[in-house]
Design a protein that fits this description.
With 568 residues, the chain is of the alpha+beta class. 17% of the residues lie in helices and 37% in strands. It is built from 8 helices and 30 strands. The radius of gyration is 54 Å and the shape is rod-shaped.
Length: 568
């Protein structure tokens, strides 16, 4: 008969079924149950979990800190039942598996709630490290150890510290954790607290932590701010290392705090006086001064007038004579140059400068040094279809029109006589400073060239001569007296009295016409007029055959004059 103190086998089986379920249906195996330590011997703990036989567990599985297992006979422990009975008839129990199962239950709950978990880094594996999460082993990728790359992880080994679970799969036994996520979250919290203590326009000291091409990061006591290179100084700074160095303490002003991104912008130049204040009065338009070339671009060169004040010399204002040339071929960096202030815009902080305006106009200089009629010598720089360009003193060019190259031949034939690079002599006919043009003549230096005073075979003013059309232009006719006489020009308005006659296209090269010499230009070339000849003949006819007051028409008078001329 069974008693409460001595339960029968059926009573004991019932108690086990209540605790674990029926053993026949696998209720024991694969579960964590409570057991009692019955003895400790030979490094093993004997644990009774209520099965027909006890199980043995290595004491190492109970050791956690300082190699102490902390067990004694009668201690109650949780173990994992791997098998109810092995070949020796013993229960197969595991403390480690029990701890892992318990850890997984806890970790799944904390993962679902997004909580941090505590663990210890205890080993290295490919691509990262292993972490003990109180019995469960997790993988810590190398990129998740710290915010910045860590060369030596030894100081972090076997040290309790928080981790964030990124991913876990109990079926596969995989857990991935991150230490970096915890640090970033902690830093974000610290940043928020620090930012609350800062304010825009506040002046604060900081330590330079890092320098880049675009600026420097300054530690403001646990939070970093960016000191951009453009906010370091009013003067041009090519690289931040020119102004500061890593580890140095700098005084900065907080320019801006972005509450959304928690980014802080810093400035140093804001603590200095602005050199642009009163710049318009300091640098009036037309003022000449010296500066240093600091930067050269495709469109011009920047010139520093004083620290913090730079002006731009546009490529079009760099040289009187060098057109379409890269600024780098005119000036060089660090070169001292003289410039003129062309425009000042204080609001946009811009000053337009001129390099060529600080020098005298070379066409003015040439005109002063070489008045009309001066003989010059130069190299043929270029030959075009209408004339020759000659290089002259002062780096300017003069042009000899084809009609002014030689006497007695056509312009085309005259052009064919000269080649690029040839040294020639010419005389200055005209200088137009505004249009930057210099007109030259070569034939005027030839012996026997026609003059107003006249020489053998020359023409004189008011003389009516027969000329041959050399060239027909929109503006008139290029003509020549005889076969090798003087050449000159008949303007379109001088081709006839009537408008219909003032069309140059009604003439052809080689055609002969009668014209009056009306004068000579600066180059001593004669000017002709058909219109003046017609008016002169009309006046002569009226004077010779009577006036219109006598009742005879002008047509009658001219007709009578023609008859007389034919009769002669």
């Amino acid at each position: 008969m069974a008693t409460a103190a001595n339960p029968t086998r059926d009573d004991f089986a019932k108690m086990l079924d209540e605790q674990l379920g029926n053993a026949d249906d696998g209720g024991f195996e694969g579960r964590v149950v409570k057991g009692t330590v019955t003895s400790i011997e030979n490094g093993m703990a004997h644990v009774d979990v209520g099965l027909k036989s006890e199980g043995r567990i290595d004491l190492k599985e109970f050791m956690r800190v300082d190699d102490e297992h902390g067990l004694k006979v009668g201690s109650e422990v949780e173990v994992f039942v791997d098998r109810i009975e092995n070949a020796d008839g013993e229960a197969m129990l595991s403390r480690d598996r029990a701890r892992r199962e318990a850890a997984w239950d806890k970790l799944e709950s904390e993962f679902g709630e997004g909580k941090r978990v505590e663990g210890r880094i205890f080993g290295r594996v490919k691509g990262g490290f292993t972490v003990d999460l109180d019995g469960a082993v997790a993988f810590l990728p190398g990129s998740q150890v710290d915010i910045r790359p860590v060369r030596d992880v030894t100081p972090l080994m076997d040290m309790p510290q928080p981790f964030q679970i990124l991913k876990m799969d109990r079926r596969r036994g995989n857990i991935v954790v991150s230490r970096r996520a915890v640090l970033e979250e902690t830093r974000a919290e610290q940043r928020s607290e620090l930012i609350n203590d800062l304010a825009e326009n506040q002046v604060i000291d900081g330590v330079v932590k890092n320098i880049t091409d675009y600026g420097a990061f300054v530690d403001l006591g646990g939070i970093d701010g960016l000191l951009h290179v453009t906010d370091m100084s009013y003067k041009r700074v090519n690289h931040p290392s020119e102004m500061i160095e890593i580890g140095s303490t700098v005084t900065v002003q907080i320019i801006r705090i972005n509450e959304d991104t928690q980014r802080i912008s810093l400035g140093m130049k804001q603590l200095e006086s602005d050199p642009w204040d009163g710049v318009s009065a300091k640098y009036p338009v037309g003022m000449k001064l010296s500066g240093t070339v600091t930067n050269i671009t495709e469109y011009g060169a920047f010139v520093e007038l004083e620290p913090g004040i730079e002006g731009l010399v546009h490529v079009s204002e760099m040289s009187w004579t060098k057109k379409n040339v890269h600024p780098g071929k005119i000036v060089s960096t660090s070169q001292e140059v003289e410039v003129m202030v062309l425009e000042v815009d204080s609001d946009k902080r811009r000053i337009s400068l001129g390099l060529k305006q600080a020098q005298r106009n070379p066409w003015e200089e040439f005109a002063d040094a070489h008045p009309v009629g001066t003989k010059v010598e130069g190299e043929v720089k270029n030959a075009t279809e209408f004339g020759l360009f000659i290089g002259l003193p002062g780096d300017v060019d003069g042009m000899v029109h084809m009609s002014d190259i030689a006497w007695g031949i056509s312009g085309e034939d005259a052009l064919a006589l000269h080649r690029k690079g040839e040294q020639v002599e010419a005389v200055v006919l005209d200088v137009d400073v505004e249009k930057e043009r210099i007109s030259l003549g070569m034939k005027q230096l030839e012996k026997g060239a026609p003059t107003e005073a006249g020489a053998a075979g020359s023409v004189r003013k008011n003389q009516v001569v027969t000329v041959t059309v050399l060239e027909v232009r929109d503006g008139g006719l290029e003509v020549q007296v005889g076969e090798d006489g003087a050449t000159g020009f008949i303007k379109r308005s001088d081709l006839g009295r009537d408008r219909d006659e003032q069309r140059s296209e009604r003439f052809q090269p080689g055609q002969k016409v009668d014209a009056m010499v009306t004068g000579f230009d600066r180059s001593k070339k004669p000017t002709f007029s058909i219109k003046a000849r017609q008016i002169s003949e009309e006046k002569e006819a009226v004077a010779q055959f009577g006036s219109s007051d006598s009742g005879a028409s002008l047509g009658d008078i001219l007709g009578e004059a023609l008859k007389k001329k034919e009769g002669e």
